[in-house]
Design a protein that fits this description.
Layout lengths: L7 E6 L2 E6 L10 H16 L4 E6 L13 H7 L1 H17 L5 E5 L3 E2 L1 H6 L4 E5 L3 E3 L13 H9 L1 H10 L3 E2 H7 L4 E3 L4 H13 L4 H8 L3 H19 L2 H12 L9
Parallel strand pairs: 2-3, 3-4, 4-6, 5-7, 6-9
Antiparallel strand pairs: 1-2, 7-8
Length: 258
């Protein structure tokens, strides 16, 4: 039997390591398979002698969010339970990671893919990148800790606008709003991320402690729980069913608020 190709690749550059989400057909959607491989890669990094981590995407995007093919199963298992089983372990691992993390956003970061991008201590973006909270388009609520991370980055007013209107935020506007640290030409993103990561890798032992001080673990956990509860209810709604059907049929959804 032919083994399927890995959906996550790991490349060492001395004490810097790059994890690449590598499933271009889905624009690196966070499927069950990809999440499992990403957690395994993070475990490998922790057991190595690395001192800084870069996460980026292969192909034309960073991460398109959840794998839409898996979403119908959320209704059966319960959307909130899926979050706790599949996604929350990943975000807890990133939150508590023992080294600085740079996110090199090389294209669209959508839905829970945007949650992933915001887990970086530093977020670099290519000019072709954009950020989109797409949850409202399919009848769900923001998750992956976004309702904790996003207001802290850009303020509550702008965060609510992104969540409620589900409009894409271009990379230059993301820089203006303080969502990202640096904006780079597409062809310069990878080298810039490596250069900054190398600088971090040469830093003192205090850097992991510094990143930990910026984490409010109790608040993050509380918001993950609130998101899961809200997502459970949203996932049981007729509007979620309609949102999925509209996506599959490539039409606009007709929500009824129920």
């Amino acid at each position: 039997m032919t083994q399927p190709p890995d959906r996550v690749t790991l490349t060492a550059h001395g004490t810097v390591v790059v994890i690449t989400l590598d499933h271009p057909p889905t624009i690196n959607a966070l499927s069950s398979t990809l999440v499992g491989e990403l957690l395994a890669a993070l475990d490998t990094v922790v057991r190595g002698e690395f001192r800084a981590l870069i996460i980026t995407g292969a192909g034309r995007g960073f991460c398109s969010g959840a794998d839409m093919k898996e979403l119908p199963g959320w209704r059966e298992e319960g959307a909130g339970q899926v979050l706790e089983r599949l996604y929350h372990p990943l975000f807890r691992t990133l939150r508590d990671f023992p080294m600085p993390i740079i996110m090199a956003v090389n294209g669209p970061a959508v839905g829970i893919g945007m949650s992933l991008a915001l887990m970086g201590d530093l977020v670099l973006a290519a000019r072709s990148a954009y950020f989109l909270l797409s949850f409202a388009r399919i009848g769900l609520v923001p998750d992956g800790g976004l309702t904790y991370l996003l207001p802290r980055a850009i303020g509550g007013t702008r965060a609510r606008e992104m969540a409620l209107l589900a409009e894409p935020l271009a990379a230059d506007k993301a820089l203006e709003w303080g969502l990202i640290n640096r904006l780079l030409p597409d062809e310069e993103l990878a080298d810039a991320a490596l250069a900054i990561a190398a600088r971090l890798a040469e830093g003192p032992a205090a850097l992991p402690f510094t990143r930990a001080l910026f984490q409010d673990t109790a608040a993050h956990e509380a918001q993950l729980a609130r998101e899961a509860k809200a997502q459970q209810r949203a996932g049981e709604s007729d509007d979620f069913r309609e949102g999925l059907a509209a996506f599959q049929q490539k039409r606009l959804p007709k929500f009824k608020g129920e």
